[in-house]
Amino acid sequence: MNELITPKKTLSKNRFLLILIALTCITACSGENNELNYDTSAQRLTSITVDGYPLDFNSEKTGPYKIETSNSEKTLSVHFESSGDYSFSYSIQNSNGTYQKTLDDEKHFVANIAEGANVISIQLYDSKKEVFVTYTIYAYRLSSAARITSFNLYDFASGSGTSLGLAPSFSEAVFDYSTTVPYSSCAIAYQITAKNSGVSMQTNGNTSYERNVYYHNLTSGVNYLDTTVVAEDFSASERYTIAITRTPPTTDQIESNAQLLKLDTDGDYFQYVCGINDYTFFIDNNTDTINLDITPEIEGAKVFINNNEINPSETQTLQANESAGAATITVISASGGNSQTYTLTYIRRSHNIVNVETTAELITAIRTAEPNDEIRVSTGEYLLTTEETGMLFSDRSGTAIEPIYLTGEQSFTDDVIIKGTGSETLITLTGSHWNISGITLQNAGTAVHLHGANNITLKELLIEGIYSTAINLTNGASNNTIKLNSFSQLSGDDTTAAIHIGDANFRNINANQLTSGEISNGNTISHNIFINMADSRAINLDAGASNTNISFNSFIENTQALDTTTRAPLIQNFGVNSVISHNSFEFDDPRETTSLIQLGAADLHVSWATGVQLIQNLFDLNNRTVNAIANLSTHTAMLAENLRSDDLTITYGGSNYDFDSLTSPIYTIQTNSTNTRCLGIEEYEIDNTNYWLVELEACDTTDTSQHWKIVTDKGIYAALVNQSQTDGHMRTATEFEGLCSTSEGIYQSNVYLTEDEGGYVERWLLDTQGNTTYIRNKKDTGYGLTVPGEFASEGTPLMTCAITNSESQQFTLVPVAQ
Q1: Which of 22, 48, 127, 401 is most deeply buried (CB count within 10 A of its CB)?
Q2: Contact, 93 vs 61, CB < 8 A?
Q3: Coil, helix or strand for 386?
Q4: Which of 738, 721, 741, 743 shows the shortest CA–CA distance to 730?
Q5: Per-residue pLDDT reduced to its tens digit, 520-553
């Protein structure tokens, strides 16, 4: 065991060990509220209700649970239940301050909430007042205020940067103002602060965000800034107007003026601001030329591009270089005694951006897509009517290096929804190399049909209200990835599935007689969530499916009221060489079923359902008597560590099982920044307590401290367990988000081993993209394991930081021979 002295390695361990001391106090001896806090004890609340607001409560998740209330709702009634006889207190923190009260025997209270953010915390103590759990509710009360508290103007273009006074002085209850600037000031900067951060604002028709700095060019005479403010709850609006007078020029000022009035590109790549002379902007990958519109402020001034005089009344065309380039614009005043030089630097994007705002534009963009296009679909609803059935069809292909992207615009409030009228197929692809993400697909017969399409990634899609098969892979569609999607509200029967691969017509045909164009090979289905499939299967690997990987998916089935008395299995496998591993099943459906996973069938050709492996699938069957797995084929299925979570013995239907030949894989986790460094552990003593910190070590496949096992947990997450320690689960610090935001924090370890406490910070999402894996934390999947600093040196501690797709966050899981 090591003493706490500074090792002779790249980073000082003393610096990052300090965080564990703080962590020990935060999680074991403090009463402070933490955003998320997972206690080591079994103490939990079993329910929380807040008036009629849905919380999606889970006793293992301590928060924050987020709700939004109207402005008229000034109090919230909070009720809770616990798993034992404990004492409680609660606190409320908002703009009025902090209020805390100890509760006696009652398990309810009324919280007075202010406009804006309210943090409501429930503290749970044991009889000795030594151990606690804090549950947190984040309640946001909408504001009815439509006011600005400050409007700051700055003299920008004259170079002084001084604040401009307004007449009268600004007050939120006054709506009309004026100010004057000299002719030398051809632009002002302004910054707005609203009374409430949730208001929406527009200045001269453009969206404004509070505290952002904006620029406005000025012409000679009176210029107006009109700002409309709409309250957060839309109950009120106000308009503020500032009249800015730019003093008319003298004759000498006109003759010596070498400034531009206008500088625009056809791609709208940047905003020209008078007084700024250097610009860097991006162009699309397939752009060959850049068109420029250049207008001097004073007629008679001469304009040159790269030393060649041009006619300012004509659009100018520049030839774009392969990767990047620059152009110099020189303006010489009418008197010839003054000049201004502007530099434009352009950089070629890796993608071609195609913006879509209407259904017609979406249809055209998909049909005419080229490699490296990124089709960006704006938020809103895109309805495909009966006349447009099948219109989202494309036979176009990207390449492995330059795929085609179809992405939904990211928004906190609105979604991108593509919907049909009930029977159509929304998207059909027959080409290859597409990435589709961030879109809701609903109200159709089929959401996506990959008809012989290869190397397609379907990611982060919300698929609901589908009446047949949601995603259908046919005609040899191969090497496709279906990951991180959510399926719900399916209305199909027992012949349909959320995901279907293969062809039922091949079930009685010898697999060896099929051509490569008929075999769907090497498809991956991972980290998807399937909720209440009604009568449908979640996944149907039909005849024609080969080498399919089904892993880390979550199946939640608790349908209570259906007309039928039986249901289909959730996974049906007729495919060959299928690997079904690390999936989680939460099953509470009263209807009878053969099993949750069915392999083969009695009337299936003997060549199908061969070579199947089932590893570490977790079944929560709510004490129901149902087979987890049923092998109805004549071939042996190989199983390893499949289990039930309700303390009952897992049962199997059918026959032909091999429980001995297969073991769960063990991995070394290698950093991609250097293939000679792997995740290991090192022991340190802090306050007489030993901790195993996760750090980089020289890769050694024989060192069990570098061996990691993936253990299935509920949902799409897993635990990472070090094989050299008993119950050595990798976890991260509870408040890891703040540790990466400071220069000191990024050199402090926040990843270490612990006993299994069941908390979110001990669970990880293994986001594999090709041969690269991002190891994301369950508490916030926007954060993942990170090697800090510039070099992956031996002894470097691991952290959990915001995912930026950096090589320092990319790992490779290398199987260890057993």
Answers
A1: 48
A2: no
A3: helix
A4: 721
A5: 999 999 999 998 887 789 999 999 999 999 999 9
CA distance readout (Å), 43 to 83, 128, 135, 756:
7, 13, 12, 15
Question: Low-confidence residues of the chain, pLDDT below 70?
Answer: 1-43, 126-132, 157-161, 267-269, 386-390, 411-413, 559-565, 686-687, 737-739, 741-749, 790-791
Whether 770 contacts 760, CB under 8 Å: no
Asked if 386 contacts 350 with a C-beta cutoff of 8 angstroms, the reply is no
Are β-strands 497-501 and 471-474 bridged in parallel, bridged antiparallel, or unpaired?
Answer: parallel
Question: CA-CA distances (angstroms) from residue 57 to 49, 361, 581?
Answer: 8, 41, 28
From the list 753, 744, 686, 735, the residue with the least C-alpha distance to 16 is 744
β-bridge mates for residue 384, sequence order: none
Alpha-helix residue ranges (DSSP H) falling in 549-660: none
pLDDT value at residue 719:
93
Place of tokens 């199946």: 555
List, in sequence order, every residue forming a beta bridge with 88; answer none if it has no partner: 103, 124
* Per-residue CA distances from 265 to 167, 280, 329, 368 (Å): 37, 12, 13, 25
Kindly state the helix (H) or strand (E) to which residue 293 belongs, with its residue range: strand 289-296
Q: What is the pLDDT of residue 334?
A: 93
Q: Which residue has the tokens 């400071």?
A: 742
Position 525 scores a pLDDT of: 97
Q: Which residues contact 509 (CB under 8 A, 6 or more apart)?
A: 543, 605
Contacts of residue 770, Cβ cutoff 8 Å, sequence gap at least 6: none
Phi and psi torsions of 482, nearest 5°: -120, 105
Query: What confidence score (pLDDT) does residue 12 get?
Result: 27
Count how many residues are written for the chain.
Answer: 818
Counting Cα atoms < 13 Å in the Cβ hemisphere of 268 gives 2
The span from the CA of 90 to the CA of 367, in Å, is 58
- Rg of the chain's alpha carbons, rounded to an integer? 31
The whole-angstrom separation of Cα 490 and Cα 339 is: 68
Residues 185/164, Cβ–Cβ less than 8 Å: no
Tokens standing for residue 34: 């933490």
Report the DSSP beta bridge partners of residue 327: 344
Identity at 345, one-letter amino acid code: T
CA distances from 202 to 112, 146, 241, 681 (A): 33, 12, 12, 54
Residue 625's pLDDT is what? Answer: 82
Strand order in the sheet with 237-246: 176-181, 237-246, 221-230, 200-203, 206-208
Cα 552 → chain centroid: 17
DSSP symbols for 102-140: EE-S--EEEEE--SEEEEEEEEEE-TTS--EEEEEEEEE
CA distance 104 to 107: 8
User: How many whole angstroms separate alpha carbon 168 and alpha carbon 175?
Assistant: 10
Query: What does the alpha-carbon distance between residue 549 and residue 577 come to, in Å, rounded to a whole number?
Result: 9
User: What contacts 785, CB < 8 A, 6 or more positions away?
Assistant: 751, 764, 774, 775, 798, 799, 800, 809, 811
Query: Widest CA span of the chain, in angstroms?
Result: 99
3-state SS track over 233-266: CCCCEEEEEEEEEECCCCHHHHHHCCCEEEEEEC
| Structure-token match 């253990």, residue found | 711
In sequence order, the β-bridge partners of residue 294 are 263
Q: Which two tokens stand for residue 564?
A: 């039928």
**Measured between alpha carbons, how far is 576 from 510 in angstroms, rounded to an integer?**
12
**In contact, 719 and 559? CB cutoff 8 Å:** no
Structure tokens given for 525? 């289905």
Q: CA 719, CA 711: separation in Å to the nearest integer?
A: 5
Query: Tokens 């408040």 appear where?
Result: 735
Give the Cα separation of 292 and 214 in Å (integer): 23
- Residue located via tokens 């908002």: 94
Answer for the pair 555, 530: CB distance below 8 angstroms, yes or no. Answer: yes
Q: Are strands 260-265 and 545-546 parallel, antiparallel or unpaired?
A: unpaired
